[in-house]
Specification:
- The chain is of the alpha/beta class.
- The chain folds into two domains: 3-202, Rossmann fold; 207-248, no CATH class.
- The protein has twelve helices and eight strands.
- It has helices at 16-28, 40-48, 50-58, 67-77, 86-100, 111-124, 143-156, 169-177, 191-196, 204-208, 212-219, 221-248, and strands at residues 3-6, 9-12, 33-38, 61-64, 104-108, 130-134, 160-164, 184-187.
- It has a six-stranded parallel β-sheet with strand order 4-3-8-7-5-6, with helices on both faces. A two-stranded antiparallel sheet has the order 1-2.
- The chain starts with a strand and ends in a 5-residue tail after the last helix.
Length: 253
Amino acid sequence: MNKTALFQYGISSASYPEFVKAILLLGQNRVSSTVFVANVHMIVESILDPLFGRLFKEADIVTPDGKPLCLALHFLYGIRQERVAGMDLMPALLNEASKSGVIVYFYGSTDEVLKKIREKCAVLYPSLKIGGMYSPPFRKLTADEDKKIIDDINASGAGIVLVALGCPKQEKWMSAMKGRISSVMVGVGGAFPVFVGTQKRAPKWMQDASLEWLYRLVQEPRRLFKRYFVTNSLFIFMVLREKLRLSWFPSHT
């Protein structure tokens, strides 16, 4: 898919249905690939951590999860790109996978959440083929554990692996598994608990107004205060600086 450079980090450009179709196609062909679902935090993390930035650039598809990214693309380059959020992308992929027969594997979150996902999928997508589910421990896996999970996913026949470890952990894991796991790996962040209803999502009007981050901040102020206020402020500064650069040197885009 074509990408537009935002601070030198490519964001894939396509319509929402085209994103779903492209990911499903990778899953049908069991292409070992990575899909990053990018928001402001991920962009800033890429700039602050060169290693993570390299992984970002190597991702096969990067969806614009955060509405601020879409607004920045339009503000800087006049590009109208609709949002493709992980919380919306996950059920869309499950629905299409259930129709096409693509096997899905769930990696991340807790055993309790995974159990609820299985139960909800049985109701919403009765024909969905679930290859397996795994809740990894809160530590680095050993080489033997890594091999076991790789073998398990590959043996399951999964074409799509939905990964929910949080940024940047899930992106680093997917990148390390590229070429080893024969599936398209999609980092969906906090989509698992939202899907089963253990965590609420912001109202539609807040999503449209780019205020979903504020809703999440109110839910988890201690954990998210630094991330949102530091990264959001830095992102706004970078957007304004880039706008000035483009105004002064329009030929250097």
